[in-house]
Amino acid sequence: MRMVALALCLAAGGCAQAITPPRTSPVAPASDALVILPGFGYSRAGEKAFRELAPKLAAEGIDLYLPTYVSRKGLYDSRMRLQRFLRDARLERYERVHVFAFIAGGWTLNRVPDVESLPNLATVIYDRSPYQERAPRIAQDRLPILTWFRYGSAVADVARTSYLPLTRPDVRVGLMIETRPTGFVSRFAKAADKQGPYRFACEAFAQPYDDCIYLPLNHAELYPRFAEIWPDVRSFIHGSRFTPAANRTPPAGPMRLATGS
């Protein structure tokens, strides 16, 4: 029954859809575009949260785009799908393009050739997590059949692919670091701990950055509660810094999830 429940959990995000501005004009009425790159945790709850947020962003002069680019065929095909989206969305119409990349989004975006050719790319904000970035390897090792059933080769590709940083000096980069584990990672705490120490220092994420903050959320919470972090996202978009009230102090270490091991 536990395996069936996990299978249903993995399949729950399957109906989440892409989001694009409700406009067909060839001329962009907004000056800014925000591209959200979801990952494996994107579900109908996340879609609902982003659809509710879109009108607020539009009122602020920001068009929201959320492509569903993750491919069962793996990272290479996901990059090709994202590359087609970047071309077909005609993002060159905007003065500035901003990207918020969830974990799989960062693994995909940074290796897309068209990222280097977007002259109006202004900011990229990455969602990172010392906990959740262990989840692909755990899923591949402990639940390979269910993981393949839901995601095909994509999870295995992320699990075995090192992070390649974005290095464009003209693009401002922000890091938002989750500080709580999801139920999935906690369930496999010993497997997570075996992957090494949990490093929360901003410099530990192999990504040059302009500002870095810590979120009191886990990966599953971040999608439906994205509106809570929007003030910091907005602040970074407009000024390359998160809000002064944002937490910039990493959790104290050393840390382990499993007990009695």
Describe this structure in words.
The chain is of the alpha/beta class. It has one domain: Rossmann fold (3-Layer(aba) Sandwich), CATH 3.40.50. The chain is 38% helix and 14% strand. The chain is built from 11 helices and 6 strands. α4 (103-109) links the parallel β3 and β4 (121-128). The chain starts with a helix and ends in a 22-residue tail after the last helix.
At a glance:
The chain has 261 residues and is an alpha/beta fold. It is 38% helix and 14% strand.
List the main descriptive attributes of the protein structure presented here.
261 residues; alpha/beta; Rossmann fold; 6-stranded parallel sheet; 11 helices; globular
| Computed Rg | 18 Å
If helices are DSSP runs of H or I spanning 4 or more residues, what is the number of helices?
11
Helix-strand topology string = HEHEHEHEHHHEHHEHH
In what range is the share of β-strand residues?
5-15%
Mean pLDDT: 89
The name of the CATH superfamily reads Alpha/Beta hydrolase fold, catalytic domain
Estimated structural class: alpha/beta
> Strand order, biggest sheet?
2-1-3-4-5-6
Helix content: 25-40%
The main pleated sheet reads as: 6 strands, parallel
The gross shape turns out to be: globular
**What is the name of the CATH topology?**
Rossmann fold
Tally of individual domains: 1
What is the level 1 CATH name?
Alpha Beta
Kindly state the number of beta strands: 6
Poorly predicted residue ranges:
1-13
